[in-house]
Amino acid sequence: MAGFGDATAVARVGEGRYEIDLDPDFGFAEAINGGYLMAVLARAAVDACPHAHPVSTATHFLRVAQPGRAEIHVDVRKAGRTAATALVSLVQGDRPVVDALITLGTLDPGAAPTYLGAPPAPELPAVEECLDFAGGQSDRGFAQHVDLRFDKATMGWLDGAPSGRPELRGWFRLRDGYAPDPFALALAVDAMPPVALNAGARGWSPTVELTWHLRALPAPGWLALHGSGRMVADGWFDEEVEVWDSAGRLVAQSRQIARLGRGGA
User: Fold this and answer.
1) Is 211's pLDDT higher than 90?
2) Full DSSP string of 24-57
């Protein structure tokens, strides 16, 4: 089993050209996880650009990515002193599968955050009091890589009793001991089940567009996730995710628009 670092490593094969074998275990029956794909694209962008961190990533999921070989094309649109921007495409079978516009910078690991008021970190029960979503199946698929522990108060949909509020809260870490970094955060913002499940949705809900922002370099340890949405309507729903590190700092934010799973809400 490849760890997260190896599973997201890209090989440079030319100017702005990379290759990777997409790991099937970072996905589900229907598709490779979008956060894993964003981590892969970010690694290529960082290699091609003069800055170390993907500060803003706007991703369009055009088709379902398949496990196995893929190409990554990086078109650097700007390479400035404080920021660089690249259009990055994942290609399979000569067709674009994912397009992302990534802006990169180099963040100061010692920067102290400033909030308007008290840090609004999500309240979560202790890890040991949360639901292990793997359900004893941590030796296969996505769960063999990603350790997710959920606030039971947001998991009523599992028992057919959704809360009616599009919301999920939980803890996140990688099982192989990979320390949190910007690439792990790309995975974290898209690691939870869809918040629309608590509004009565069913089945796989494909993301159409997801934008995420890197706000700080994360400290080691568990990451706290808080996912929420505002509206489910006409086959579409929105989802926002905040990621907080073990030092109590907001380290990533995301917002996506997605389609409801078959069966709807």
Assistant:
1) yes
2) TTSB-SS-B-HHHHHHHHHHHHHHHSS-SEEEEE
